[in-house]
Every structure is written in C-alpha cells, then in structure tokens.
Design goal:
single chain, 152 residues, alpha+beta, 5-stranded antiparallel β-sheet, 41% helix, elongated
Length: 152
C-alpha cells in the first residue's frame, strides 16, 4: 500500500496526469457529444494513457422527429482538462434549450400532448422541430398555453 501511494505521488509530482474533455453540441438538434481521455503532460506534449471514450446524448425530440434525415453539425461547447484528483465532465443538456424543449424532455404529459397535436394535424413535424429548437417565440408560448388549457 505504501508503494502504491509513493508511486502515485511521484506520478502527480513529476507528470501532470489529467483527463481531457471535449464537449460538442449539434447546432440543429442540440444533441451533445463528449469525449474524454486520460493523458500525461510532458515537456514536449502529452501521452495518452487511456483510450479515447465518446459519449453521445440525443434528446427525445431528436429521436422522435429528426432521426431519419439529420446529419449532425457539431459545434464546440467546451474544452477542459482536469487533473488527477479533480472530477468534472460535460453537461448533457443543451445550453440553448428553450422552455418548450425543456418541457418536452422532462414531461411525459407534454410529449403526449405534442404527439396528439401531430396526430390531429394541428401541428406538422416541421413546425414541431422549429418550435423545439428556436428561441422563445409566440408559437412556443401558444403551444405551452394550449397544453396547460388541455390539462384543466
């Protein structure tokens, strides 16, 4: 046990062991992708000591309405390094999410309401996609108002 502690101490003092994170967000559907890799920083660069691991987080909205004809356009959301004892990562929920998208992702009743609107042809798939991704607008406020009125 003492040797393990000594080895770890030497590694931390003489080498900067860290975990590099990259987080990307799709500009169109707001899904996120993160990569992480442990590495040792040296004087001439860095040496990877673990495989590159990629995690993808696709929103329910993406799976429900965009999946079949969508090519992701990844945009860097954040880049960071965390040293041996530090722990962090990437947030999976999109930074730019509007109120409608947040309700859609978190509330089963709201998802059912939107799907019902689609079945009754009160909304099209294109309208739903644009309302889920765009910034706050009158269309979004109307959809939320209609949802709350349907519950009462």
């Amino acid at each position: 046990m003492r040797y393990l502690f000594l080895f770890t101490s030497v590694m931390v003092v003489f080498f900067n062991i860290n975990k590099k994170y990259t987080c990307d967000e799709c500009v169109l559907c707001l899904s996120t992708k993160s990569t992480e890799q442990w590495s040792i920083d040296t004087l001439t660069g860095y040496v990877a000591i673990s495989p590159l691991v990629t995690h993808s987080f696709f929103l329910r909205a993406f799976n429900d309405y965009l999946k079949e004809k969508h090519t992701h356009q990844w945009f860097p959301k954040s880049r960071s390094s965390h040293y041996l004892l530090g722990a962090s990562g990437c947030s999976n929920f999109p930074i730019k999410a509007n109120d409608v998208l947040r309700m859609y992702e978190r509330t089963t009743e709201f998802r059912d309401f939107v799907k019902k609107q689609l079945q009754q042809k009160k909304l099209t798939k294109t309208q739903i996609c644009s309302v889920l991704v765009m910034r706050n607008s009158l269309c979004q406020q109307q959809l939320i108002t209609d949802f709350w009125n349907s519950i009462e």
